[in-house]
Amino acid sequence: MPVGIFRVCLVVLAAIVNHPLIFPRENGTVPENTEEIIQKMKEREETLRLEQLRLEQEIAEQEAIQKALEKSAEVVKESKEEKVRWDMWTALSMVIFLLIELWRQDFQEGIWQDTGGEEDDMAVLGKAFKGVAFPDKAALASFYEKRILGTTGDMARMREMVEGFADDLLEALRSVCNRDADMEVEDCMGVGSMYENWRVRKPFVCDLIVPFAPPEPYCFRSQTWCSGDSFPSAEQGYGTIKVCRAGEDVTGCICDKTKLGEDMLCLLHSQANTTRPSSEMEDLLCFKNTQYLDANQVMKWFQIAVTKAWNRISHKYEFDLSFSLLDSPGALKIKFRSGKSIAFNLTPVVQYENSDVYFISHFPRSSLAADLPSSTHWFLTFAVYERRFIQLVSKTLPANACHVSCLQILSFLHGKQCSLTGPSGLTNYHLKTVMLHLLQARPSQDWAPEKLEARLQDMLKFLEKCLHEKKLYHFFIGNGKVPAELGFPIIFQRAEPLNLFRPFVLHRDVYRKTVDTFHEMLRNMTALINEYTVHIPLAQTNGIHKESF
């Protein structure tokens, strides 16, 4: 408190002493000095202000530099964190991909078990069967005995006659061919419905395939869509055949791709072997300016060779032989003097490696099938393994099993309906594929003869499910549960399943026609069967009721 009073007094005293009115004369220069002081103070103030601005600017720059450093540090930190996150996502993606791949393999292994299903699973289907009365067991048994069994003897006699004539014709073909320049023809093999004993509709047609090989020193090198080569999805089920010299690397030598100097020679190939005249490859039935076997060239050569062979042996037979269909180059017809005729197909094929899978030059086409990508693409047929699988499974089934009977009845009904309403996208091969799936999925005892009605329902419901989903998988391709006894090539078991109904997605008009024909067949099923059924006494039908889906 005293200090504060002292300060106030000191200020008052200084004000009195410095007042200009109290000491006017002694301080006459004060105003001038004051102005100088004020001027200097202003200059000093201006200098301090400029210095303050400079310091503020430097501080701002330092802060900007610090912020930039902090920001760059944050960016580096974020990039490190992003890299860590990216590495995590990469690792997670790899794990997910591996899980999907494992699931896909398990799905492919399990898809064949799911095709048959259980009775409860099949009951969920069948929407198209509502209100459709299914023929009773007596009607089915009478129909099968009257319409189906009577054709078995005719098929056996026809097979024997056709096989004998085909062997004689091929022997004559070998004699007219140049063994040093022409293709080497092997013995024929019977495949298809006639040799699997389920053909029902006339005319009966035997399908024979004839393997052939190139003359020495050439050989065939095959490439399929599942062998690692790049084939579009539309070419699944096809392959190409390359004609090479024995011992030649199929990938070719670098001397064919690199211009060597005039004073340089390839130590593997002589000058005579490095260039191959185009006429020589055309003589080997290859497509022009390529080494790939041409299906059209093969069929032309085969038709000419068959014609020459027939001219050599025609005097031994009392009938005529001719090519019956222009769109099926291997279709032959035997015409007897009585007016009767027998048709059969004799088609050249190329063996795939050392298996019973064959590249077939021409395959029976349907409205569902697309055109071949080119004449160098060959369709693969598994007909030999299909016949062998049916024979193998038949040994484990009860006596007089109903699997063939179901296929025969279904084939007859579909063929009869197509004759009334026109062709559809379904073929007999699709119907046989349905039977093969159910044969593998169902226990052996389910195919007892008394279960014909139930198994026929299963086939129809399974076919309806496939049409609804537009998915019917090839029985062998992608099927990892093919019996090892067949010796089926593992490359096709590991391949992606081949959807036989895939063209339905692109051809909606054909799909709609096929579905309509199928539904119409269901509605007309009882009438079609009763048309070929003898009268059944009422006493035999007591206790038997019509069962609907």
Automatic annotation (TrEMBL):
Domain Mab-21-like HhH/H2TH-like: 404-477
One CC-aspect GO term: plasma membrane
GO MF terms, alphabetically ordered: protein kinase inhibitor activity
InterPro entries attached to this UniProt entry: ITPRIP-like, Mab-21_HhH/H2TH-like, MAB21L/cGLR
UniProt keyword annotation of Ribosomal protein present: no
Location in the cell: Cell membrane; Nucleus outer membrane
Topology in membrane: Single-pass type I membrane protein
One Pfam family recorded for the sequence: Mab-21_C
Domain of life: Eukaryota
Keyword Signal appears in the UniProt entry: yes
Residues in coiled coil: 38-72
Signal peptide bounds: 1-24
Matches recorded under PANTHER family: CELL FATE DETERMINING PROTEIN MAB21-RELATED, INOSITOL 1,4,5-TRISPHOSPHATE RECEPTOR-INTERACTING PROTEIN
Purpose of the protein: Enhances Ca(2+)-mediated inhibition of inositol 1,4,5-triphosphate receptor (ITPR) Ca(2+) release.
Protein name: Inositol 1,4,5-trisphosphate receptor-interacting protein
Species for this entry: Rissa tridactyla (Black-legged kittiwake)
Gene that specifies this protein: Itprip
